[in-house]
Amino acid sequence: MKLFTRKKPNSDTENPAIMQIVRACAYMSKNYTGALIIIERDMSLTDIISSGERIDANINAQLIKNIFFKNSPLHDGAMIIGHNRIVAAACILPVSHNTNIPKELGLRHRAALGITQQSDAVAIIVSEETGRITLARRGNFRYDLSQEELERYLTTVM
């Protein structure tokens, strides 16, 4: 099961779900709003989803921004996207115990690394401190992504 379909070569059409995620991340990056978005792929994240609050909503940039707004009761923890829907928010993730993670990266990055070490999920991190967007997959980070790089990478991976 794939969450997103691959963009066809020479296609003018964008994947609306990817664009909503990218737009939300770009906004949060610009405004130094921390976020952790997990995209479920083939491996089920049922246990992680059950640790948070169920949402079951269309993927929408405004909703993503509202969930991660600093005073929102759902802003702590991770948002899970699966089956082309926002499934849950405020989810608790396993934390990586990798000692090679740079000291300047915080718990959000450790949690992103942890979930991508234990599943095939993709994690998007927006740093509250720097505004930088990072993507984690297979226990590795891709740092300081632009909006275009994030879109391209999500399109390729998904």
* Mean pLDDT score: 90
Distance between the termini: 10 Å
Q: Which radius of gyration do the C-alpha atoms yield? A: 14 Å
Instruction: Describe the main β-sheet briefly.
Output: 7 strands, mixed
Shape: globular
Task: Present the secondary structure layout.
Blueprint: H1 16-30, E1 35-39, H2 46-50, E2 53-57, H3 61-67, E3 78-82, E4 85-91, H4 107-118, E5 122-126, E6 133-137, E7 140-142, H5 147-157
Parallel strand pairs: 1-3
Antiparallel strand pairs: 1-5, 2-4, 3-4, 5-6, 6-7
Helix pairs in contact: 1-3, 1-5
Describe the structure.
The protein has 158 residues and is of the alpha+beta class. The protein has five helices and seven strands. The protein has a seven-stranded mixed sheet with strand order 2-4-3-1-5-6-7, with helices on both faces. A hairpin with a 6-residue loop joins strand 5 (122-126) and strand 6 (133-137). The chain is globular, with a radius of gyration of 14 Å. The termini are close together. Mean pLDDT is 90; it is low at 4-13.
Which key terms come to mind for this protein?
about 160 residues; about 30% helix; about 20% strand; single chain; globular; 7-stranded mixed sheet; alpha+beta; 5 helices
Task: Please provide a brief summary of the model.
With 158 residues, this protein is an alpha+beta fold. The protein has 5 helices and 7 strands; from the N terminus they run H-E-H-E-H-E-E-H-E-E-E-H.
